[in-house]
Amino acid sequence: MGATIPTSFLRVFGCETMTVIAEAGVTRNIKALDVVPAIGGLSAGFNADAL
Predict the structure, then answer these.
(1) What phi and psi, each to the nearest 5 degrees, are found at residue 46?
(2) What residues have CB less than 8 Å from 10, skipping those under 6 apart?
(3) Please, which of 2, 27, 31, 32 could form a disulfide with 21 given CB 3.0 to 4.6 Å?
(4) What are phi and psi of 9, to 5 degrees?
(5) What is the tens place of the pLDDT at every residue in 28-50?
(6) What DSSP designation does 32 have?
(7) At 3, is the secondary structure helix, strand, or coil?
(8) Torsion angle, CA of 37/43/49/50, rounded to 10 degrees?
């Protein structure tokens, strides 16, 4: 896709128009997430020193 636009300063050098072309792209990276469900919670008898 392009567009032809008139020039202002380049007319001095004999260039009256300029063609401009633009492109765009999108890259999507989706990484798998490891999910570990937690069942229950910490009990009152949890001993951190045992770890």
Answers:
(1) -65, 130
(2) 16, 18
(3) 2
(4) -80, -25
(5) 887 777 777 766 655 555 565 65
(6) P
(7) strand
(8) -70
Name the residue with tokens 């380049």.
Answer: 10
Chain centre to alpha carbon of residue 10: 36
Burial class (CB in 10 A: 0-12, 13-18, 19+), 3: exposed
Residue indicated by tokens 């063609």? 19
- pTM score over 0.90: no
At position 6, the amino acid (one-letter code) is P
Instruction: List the structure tokens of 41.
Output: 């919670």
Q: Measured between alpha carbons, how far is 40 from 29 in angstroms, rounded to an integer? A: 34
At 7-28, the pLDDT tens digits run 888 888 888 898 889 889 988 8
